[in-house]
């Protein structure tokens, strides 16, 4: 019973590593494409909306997570 759990854990870590490398490669290609863009065209990401920083249903979400 322990052996299948160990094998599954190792498989999960292996697959996460593969997907992480693939995503890193993809994001690296996007960063290279965006490097040629002028600075004025670069979109700005801001956290100006306070409702996204502090959700209203925090305790409800916490209760759902714990349950």
Descriptive report:
There is one protein chain. The chain is mostly helical and 67 residues long. The protein has a domain at 1-35. 70% of the residues lie in helices and 0% in strands. The protein has helices at residues 2-35, 50-53, 58-66. The longest helix is centred in the first third of the chain and has 34 residues, at 2-35. It is flat and about 45 Å long.
Concise structural overview:
Helices cover 70% and strands 0% of the residues.
Instruction: Tell me, rounded to a whole number, the average pLDDT.
Output: 78
Percent range of helical residues: over 70%
Number of strands: 0
Cα Rg: 20 Å
The CA-CA distance between the termini, in Å, is: 27 Å
Question: What is the secondary structure topology, with strand pairs?
Answer:
Elements: H1 2-35, H2 50-53, H3 58-66
Name a few traits of the molecule.
67 residues, mainly alpha, flat
């Amino acid at each position: 019973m322990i052996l299948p759990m160990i094998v599954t854990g190792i498989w999960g870590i292996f697959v996460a590593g593969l997907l992480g490398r693939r995503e890193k490669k993809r994001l690296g290609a996007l960063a290279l494409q965006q490097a040629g863009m002028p600075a004025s065209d670069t979109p700005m990401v801001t956290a100006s909306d306070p409702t996204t920083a502090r959700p209203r249903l925090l305790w409800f979400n916490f209760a759902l997570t714990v349950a």
